[in-house]
Write a structure and sequence with these properties.
By secondary structure, the chain is mainly α. The chain has helices spanning about 10-25, 30-40, 45-55, 60-105, 110-135, 145-160, 165-190.
């Protein structure tokens, strides 16, 4: 770990991930990057991308995996538990309460329209975060061009051809892994020369 900032205590870690979870309706990637990299300074953009890439291939929600990894990085298993509790405790209570309310008011058009609008906001936040992280791809073994092509292919496969997630991961995910592996080998060869 570099000379980056770090949480001073387990409670700071808990409240940081609690804040992330409570800010991110429908997805917390944009909020997570802003909080952990820009505001708290616990990770660089490159470290965030690396950790997030690992979190994506592990089973379970990406942000939960990221919370576990960072909690463990700073405080071991106690930190992993504190970060996980911060991510899940209050949001779980809120979701249970909202589910009860939704059962009462689901038939109202304003409720369905509000949920549709929140979905659009979440999609916009994810796209904005992707654009903000785009310069970091210069250092990626995959390379910016290949990453952009894979991104466009993934969007097309998901939106237009409606391929299910397992097929996307097996096809385009395998291609991305192979290209990154090839890029890492190429970087290793050039550094040896």
């Amino acid at each position: 770990m570099n000379a980056r900032a770090a949480p001073a205590s387990l409670s700071e870690l808990f409240w940081a991930f609690n804040r992330l979870a409570l800010q991110g309706f429908g997805g917390v990637l944009a909020v997570t990057q802003r909080e952990l990299v820009e505001r708290l300074g616990w990770l660089s953009r490159e470290e965030f991308l690396d950790a997030f890439a690992i979190a994506q291939v592990l089973p379970g929600p990406n942000i939960v995996n990221l919370a576990l990894m960072l909690g463990d990085r700073f405080f071991g298993s106690r930190g992993a538990f504190a970060a996980l509790a911060g991510m899940l405790l209050f949001p779980s209570l809120i979701v249970i309460g909202m589910a009860a309310l939704y059962g009462q008011f689901a038939v109202l058009p304003i409720v369905s329209n509000a949920l549709r609008g929140m979905g659009a906001v979440a999609a916009g936040l994810i796209m904005a975060t992707g654009l903000k992280l785009l310069p970091s791809l210069k250092k990626s073994p995959l390379g910016r061009t290949a990453a952009m092509i894979l991104t466009l292919a993934t969007v097309a496969a998901a939106v237009y051809w409606r391929l299910p997630l397992p097929q996307l991961l097996l096809s385009l995910g395998s291609i991305g892994v192979a290209l990154a592996w090839w890029g890492l080998r190429r970087q290793a060869r050039s550094s040896q020369a």
